């Protein structure tokens, strides 16, 4: 990389983490399960506004919450690895 962090990618523990890619995946999994944001919030034991922040890659959303949300929506560990590696590959 040229020293600049690409949009949608945040530094975390000296590694590039694909926050936008994970947020996009949350939206995709939610739609795949045909859930509205309110139902998703109930599933995640969270609020509808938090789901909106998840899907918008808001800076207040933690990596932990993104990953737990994806797993709760049915993503596998392999799915998570694909999202992360695809986003990091595009960023470099």
Structure at a glance:
The chain is mainly alpha-helical. The chain has helices spanning 19-32, 37-44, 48-55, 63-72, 77-91; strands spanning 10-12, 15-17. It has a single domain, classed as Orthogonal Bundle (434 Repressor (Amino-terminal Domain)), CATH 1.10.260.40.
* Cα Rg: 13 Å
- DSSP summary: helix tally: 5
How many domain regions? Answer: 1
CATH class descriptor name: Mainly Alpha
Q: What's the CATH topology label?
A: 434 Repressor (Amino-terminal Domain)
Strand order of the largest sheet: 1-2
Q: How many angstroms separate the termini? A: 5 Å
Judged by helices, strands and strand pairing, the structural class is mainly alpha
Fourth-tier CATH superfamily name? lambda repressor-like DNA-binding domains
The residue fraction in helices comes out at 55-70%
Beta-strand fraction estimate = 5-15%
Question: Spans of 5+ residues with little confidence (pLDDT < 50)?
Answer: 11-16
Level-2 CATH architecture:
Orthogonal Bundle
What is the total tally of β strands? 2
Largest sheet: 2 strands, antiparallel
Mean pLDDT score, rounded? 82
Q: What is the 3D form?
A: globular
- The secondary-structure element order is EEHHHHH
Q: State the oligomer.
A: single chain
